[in-house]
Structures are given as C-alpha cells and as structure tokens.
Amino acid sequence: MPQPARRPRPRRLLTALALLGPALLVVGQLGVAADEALAASGDRVAGTVVEASDSQRASQRDVVVAYRGHDGVERTVVAKSDHEQVARAGDAVEVAVDPADPDRAVVLGFESGWTPVAGMGIVLSAIAVLIAAIALVTWRARVRSRSGRAASGRPATPSRP
C-alpha cells in the first residue's frame, strides 16, 4: 500500500534557518575580528601572489600568496579579493604572520576568508525573518477569517495540526 505524501515542515525549515543564520554570522564576525587583530599585531613579511582568480563570482575571487616566515619555511595563505582589487601572479604584497604560529597569516589589503561566512549568515537570517513574517501574516489572516465566520453564525473550518 502506498504511503501518503509527506507534507513539508515549514517550522523545521524556519527553525533551521533561524539557528543557522545567526550562528554563521557570529562565527564569521569572530573570524573577521581575529584576522583584523592579526593584521594589526602580526609580524610583517613580504609575500608574492602566486595565483589569482578573476571570477565574477565573489566566492571564487581567491588570491594565493606565498610568504616565508621567520623560521625560513615557505608557506601559502589564501585571501579574498573584491571586484576593485586586481591582483596578478608575481605581485608583491605584505603579509601579517602570527609569531607564535607562522602557519596563521593574513594578506594585508585583502578581505578576510571569513567574510563570506558572515555574509551567508546575514542572507540566511534575512530569509528566516521573511519566512516568519509571511507565516505571521498568513496566520493572522486565517484567524481573522475564522473570527468573522464565528460572528456571522457560520461554522469555522477545523484547523490543521
């Protein structure tokens, strides 16, 4: 015997968006703040752009920079570029390196890698607010419709669980 089709669960979707959006926003902002602190206090070393993608999509505009830490080991770090920044392979850039952890570095003058995470949190939070507003308006319209029927003496339609 075929099983009845499952109804979508908008409350679950709204709950997931309402939790995930702000969580991503907070994590992204904490990451951006940590990168800004490193940019302000880290040791400055010279770096060279080894790869730069020139995509129209902001999520794919990565710049890979090679730098040599104070320990002499060559490393790479990835940074995000905005549409106004033009980086080409071979360009010299400045890198801020954590003296306690030379693998942790940020490229000065470029966006933090955490910026897209915070942006996604904003988008998901806005979608959750929009869905909640639509649900509230729909619910209020249903309640007013039922109260209008009850006042006129007509039976109200039974509500769904």
Give your account of this protein's structure.
- This protein has one domain.
- The radius of gyration is 26 Å and the shape is elongated.
- It has a 5-stranded antiparallel sheet with strand order 3-2-1-4-5.
- The chain has 161 residues and is of the alpha+beta class.
- Helix 1 runs antiparallel to helix 2.
- This is DUF3592 domain-containing protein.
- It comes from Agrococcus sediminis.
Strand tally: 5
Category by helix and strand content? alpha+beta
* Helical content class: 40-55%
* Number of individual domains: 1
Side by side, the strands of the main sheet go 3-2-1-4-5
List low-pLDDT spans: none
Rg: 26 Å
How large is the count of helical segments? 2
> Which H/E pattern describes the elements?
HEEEEEH
Q: How would you sum up the major sheet?
A: 5 strands, antiparallel
Head-to-tail CA distance between termini: 24 Å
Share in β-strands:
15-25%
Which whole number gives the mean pLDDT?
84
Transmembrane segments: 117-139
Signal peptide: 1-33
Keywords: Membrane, Signal, Transmembrane, Transmembrane helix
Protein name: DUF3592 domain-containing protein
Keywords:
161 residues; alpha+beta; five-stranded antiparallel beta sheet; 2 helices; transmembrane; membrane; DUF3592 domain-containing protein; signal; transmembrane helix
